[in-house]
């Protein structure tokens, strides 16, 4: 027994020594965090009538928001490690593969969360820090611990946390919440279900294996595909609202309609096909959709600023 304990300790020490920065980076889900920070930057720039934000504020706000998002991702890894060990898509992640231990992940996540709050409180404003903390708890605790495991509407309800970044960016500049900021939030909130359900269709057997009640598992693939089409139609309607209320102009409207009908094309094709390949194409397009939609927000914003200056 003693020799076995020594061997186990030596094995754990070997794992700890082999931990590299790449393992910590993977815990942060960098691609997701990059999209989060991008939408937060857009929120900040849209909140400024001149399209300019002090560089110190821009860096501090997005560093804080990015660290909070990375902390939530690491906590998600920690909480889901047993599930991840069973699913093909996630079994090679640092925790289930034994590349890093739970204590290190917890300390890493808490350090990033603490740093995020300190940065936002010191160099941004209290409201941004508070809302960022609520989003972090919403994703890492409310969604990951409770919603994900108990309701097929998990991604709908939990999507509020993921929809927060442009709102956080807006509040970082204005220190207030208004209807335009909430509209940015609403766009991502409505985008999240069709985005994630496309992936869930492809991974439904894995979710069923670990008893996660994703919509394709509880209500079937055909029902989920219909919901994707319906949510995409709703997304198109919500996405053109900024132009309707004159928050944005014709450049954004044209981009939103083109991207929205592209999303609808993929959703309708998915509805009419049995192959899971289209599910992944729809999932991939959804990421491109959101990135380009917010890019059109910026393009339109600066075009209107230049036009106003020219006409002045």
Q: Quick one: overall form?
A: globular
Q: Low-confidence stretches at least 5 residues in length (pLDDT < 50)?
A: 1-16
Main sheet characteristics: none
The tally of beta strands, per DSSP, is: 0
CATH class of the largest domain: Mainly Alpha
Tell me the domain tally: 2
The CATH topology assignment of the largest domain is Tetracycline Repressor, domain 2
CATH superfamily descriptor of the largest domain: UbiA prenyltransferase
What class, by secondary structure content?
mainly alpha
**Average pLDDT, to the nearest integer?**
93
Rg (C-alpha, Å)? 21 Å
Report the end-to-end length measured between terminal Cα atoms: 84 Å
Question: How many individual helices?
Answer: 15
Helix content: over 70%
What features would you describe in this structure?
Helix content is 82%, strand content 0%. It is mainly α. It folds into two domains: 176 residues, Tetracycline Repressor, domain 2 (Orthogonal Bundle); 135 residues. Helix 3 runs parallel beside helix 9, helix 7 runs antiparallel to helix 8 and helix 10 packs antiparallel against helix 13.
In short:
The protein has 312 residues and is mainly α. It is built from 15 helices and no strands.
Helices and strands in order:
Blueprint: H1 2-17, H2 21-27, H3 30-47, H4 55-79, H5 81-86, H6 102-123, H7 126-150, H8 154-162, H9 165-174, H10 179-202, H11 204-209, H12 215-219, H13 221-244, H14 250-272, H15 277-311
């Amino acid at each position: 027994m003693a020799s076995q304990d020594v061997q186990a300790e030596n094995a754990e020490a070997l794992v700890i020594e082999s931990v590299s920065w790449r393992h910590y980076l993977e815990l942060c889900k960098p691609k997701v965090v990059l999209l989060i920070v991008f939408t937060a930057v857009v929120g900040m720039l849209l909140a400024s009538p001149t399209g300019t934000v002090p560089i110190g504020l821009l860096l501090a706000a997005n560093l804080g928001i990015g660290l909070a998002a990375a902390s939530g991702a690491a906590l998600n890894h920690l909480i889901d490690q047993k599930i991840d060990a069973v699913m093909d898509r996630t079994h090679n992640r640092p925790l289930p593969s034994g590349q890093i231990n739970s204590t290190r992940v917890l300390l890493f996540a808490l350090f990033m969360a603490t740093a995020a709050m300190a940065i936002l409180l010191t160099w941004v404003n209290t409201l941004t820090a508070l809302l960022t903390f609520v989003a972090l708890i919403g994703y890492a605790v409310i969604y990951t611990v409770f919603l994900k495991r108990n309701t097929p509407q998990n991604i709908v309800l939990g999507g509020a946390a993921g929809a927060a970044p442009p709102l956080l960016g807006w509040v970082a500049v204005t220190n207030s919440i208004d209807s335009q900021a909430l509209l940015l939030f609403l766009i991502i909130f409505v985008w999240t279900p069709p985005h994630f359900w496309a992936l869930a269709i492809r991974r439904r057997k894995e979710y069923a294996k670990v008893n996660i009640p994703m919509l394709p598992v509880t209500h079937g693939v055909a029902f989920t595909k219909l919901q994707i089409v319906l949510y995409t139609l709703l997304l198109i309607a919500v996405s053109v609202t900024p132009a309707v209320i004159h928050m944005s102009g014709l450049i954004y409207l044209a981009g939103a309609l083109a991207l929205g009908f592209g999303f609808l094309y993929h959703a309708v094709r998915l509805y009419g096909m049995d192959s899971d390949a289209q599910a992944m194409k729809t999932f991939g397009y959804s990421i491109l959709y959101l990135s380009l939609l917010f890019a059109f927000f910026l393009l339109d914003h600066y075009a209107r600023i230049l036009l106003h200056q020219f006409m002045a």
